[in-house]
């Protein structure tokens, strides 16, 4: 016997059957039947955001900090179009989301009806897949397929567009077990012959390096565990992209720090000089590779990725292995052990000698004046005072984001939520809301810039309403700092539109929302201010007034390879060549 | 700070790809893509090509399995080998795509296109058009006293050649289907 129910009820039933406990959303005319069903039940909490973009970023924060898909519900037209930035963000960072948008009734589609938008058309290039459901009988099955597609293989956002008449009409409910998900079954097991070949390369390598990315985290905690085992057993150095931070503990002795455009000197030099690069779940993004034709010129490259299109997209690799990171690492470890746990000891010893010399450069050193707070100092103190907490970090986008990646240390996966691929200012505050919803007892801090913070600051109201004690740690340089830095390097210091003028008083702003705020300007007060922020039981904005002209180093200028890093302001003259200037 | 000297065309390809784009030889490939015949599937495929800057030289699509609702999309594309590989991998990511075949790589394929060609004229030219049509095995599917519509099937090159010959003889209009292709042999 199939159960008959309305489409609106099916939506809620399917969410329950998929184990969803939180939905981030915003109502409107076309979504009213579903909102009515939300009203009539208590299993699923609905977080009312203040802007649909906030809902999507909140769902991303929820998803990335739990490993479960984030769920969003919005109305038609403007509700749906407001999700576009978040969808693209989730697509580029491989975050599983299920977004439901309401649509005008099927008989009005195509008439330019009130709040009609071609939502599946608009979101097609920024979702992993999307559906317009025209029949109530198909709705439940599509819902279950949506969860399947969002979470299987390389995760990503999906969208289901649900016309209002489909919500009202009655149809048969398909339970999850009966939903057809058959043909979308990405390959998870890696090719054993290729994995064995990789083990052979590892046994001989003189200068190996693991270069890991968000794929390790997406594969689940088991993958991070296996990675730790492999590094522990082989003693190979490891670096990671921004998206992969935490998969390997920052306190591990093999940890070189983040690599890439603002990565650590030792990490980039090791990438440049290695003879075996083992890419696990990273995608040779342009922030990582720098100049492609001079990228790690002397190395054999292996690439483990669940998405075949990531292989050879940017960098040609010698040994591709398509599969889920966790599965492949399990086989890798097993084969390596079975073959006698061999490594090239002499080679490795010399390699670590080189790396230790690069480490001595101490690329993150910065001056510590007594009269002004350096952003690096603020983060160093934040790290010192919060590292023992059950802590989750989100960030906005800009210099502060890169400093956070350099100066905060992540010991576990799923602890850093940041917009990597799209670089979305306005991500961090709503993301912190999503994280706090998932982890009510944890300390959730958004490391923000004053400009990014303003892009979604309306979400402070959401935090207050839902009693989410999120901490907004604003590194306020009164500048669009990252833009200003590029203008320094590229445009003769002509700071076109990169000031933050007419800034609000962030303390009063916090108070206006019913939260608490504090301004700190003196390095001597920093610890006390951070302490107050941590101890305050509720949302808090700490406005940290920092050095205005600090640039973020090291930096690989665009168009340059890994071994051409800028280490400080005095080296920036003519740093970017003519061909690099057109790059982003 | 130095003045900007931006080399023309240095960022033509992917932002960080400063390699000489001409080092790779461009070749033509015929791809057969088996998809679920659902709303929007063609838009997904075409959007992939336009969004990522790939070429479409020819495209045909029709449902080939009316009970299973499968369609076959035949795409003729061109690019250097790495780009062709990327195109296939990207097509494979599209959820309703079941199979992607590179007929050019998988072995010899039969490739056929159909064209309708309208030629108008009188006297010698009209006779010559009919004579050439016979050589090319084109059929006259419509004729009036001053015009023919020829139907011709063959490789795109054969159709090009026929159309070129018809041009001085009074070619009015041409409609082409794009390439349909199947691999040769038993499987
Ligand atoms: C939505 C969006 N618009 C524009 C940009 C370009 N952008 C990158 S960083 C940045 C400045 C960020 O300023 P702020 O948040 O104060 O951070 P800071 O760099 O000063 O630490 C801008 C405008 C972006 N990344 N996202
Ligand atoms: Mg700023």
Question: Which features would summarize this protein structure in a list?
Answer:
heterodimer, A: 584 residues, 6-stranded parallel sheet, 23 helices, globular, B: 187 residues, alpha+beta, Alpha-Beta Plaits, 2 domains, 4-stranded antiparallel sheet, elongated, disordered N terminus, binds thiamine diphosphate, binds magnesium ion
Strands side by side in the biggest sheet of chain A: 3-2-4-5-7-6
Helix share, percent of chain A: 25-40%
Question: Helical percent range of chain B?
Answer: 25-40%
CATH top level of the largest domain in chain B is: Alpha Beta
Largest sheet descriptor of chain A: 6 strands, parallel
Q: How many discrete domains of chain B?
A: 2
Strand content of chain B: 35-45%
The structural class of chain B is: alpha+beta
Q: Strand-and-helix sequence of chain B, N→C?
A: EHEEHEHEHEEHE
What's the tally of helices of chain B? 5
The largest sheet of chain B is: 4 strands, antiparallel
Instruction: Report strand order across the widest sheet of chain B.
Output: 2-3-1-4
| Average pLDDT over all residues of chain B | 89
CATH topology annotation of the largest domain in chain B: Alpha-Beta Plaits
Structural class of chain A: alpha/beta
**What is the β-strand count of chain B?**
8
Give the averaged pLDDT of chain A, no decimals.
96
Structure description:
The complex is a heterodimer of chains A (584) and B (187). With 584 residues, chain A is an alpha/beta fold. Chain A has a six-stranded parallel β-sheet with strand order 3-2-4-5-7-6. In chain A, helix 2 links the parallel strand 2 and strand 3. Chain B has 187 residues and is α+β, with helices and mostly antiparallel strands. Chain B folds into two domains: 27-102, Alpha-Beta Plaits (2-Layer Sandwich), CATH 3.30.70; 109-183, ACT-like. Chain A, domain 2 (Alpha-Beta Plaits, 2-Layer Sandwich). Chain B is 27% helix and 39% strand. Chain B has five helices and eight strands; from the N terminus they run βαββαβαβαββαβ. In chain B, the strands form two sheets. A four-stranded antiparallel β-sheet of chain B has the order 2-3-1-4. The model of chain B is unreliable at 1-22 (pLDDT under 50). Chains A and B meet through helix 21 of A and helix 1 and helix 2 of B. The site of magnesium ion has 8 residues of chain A, from helix 19.
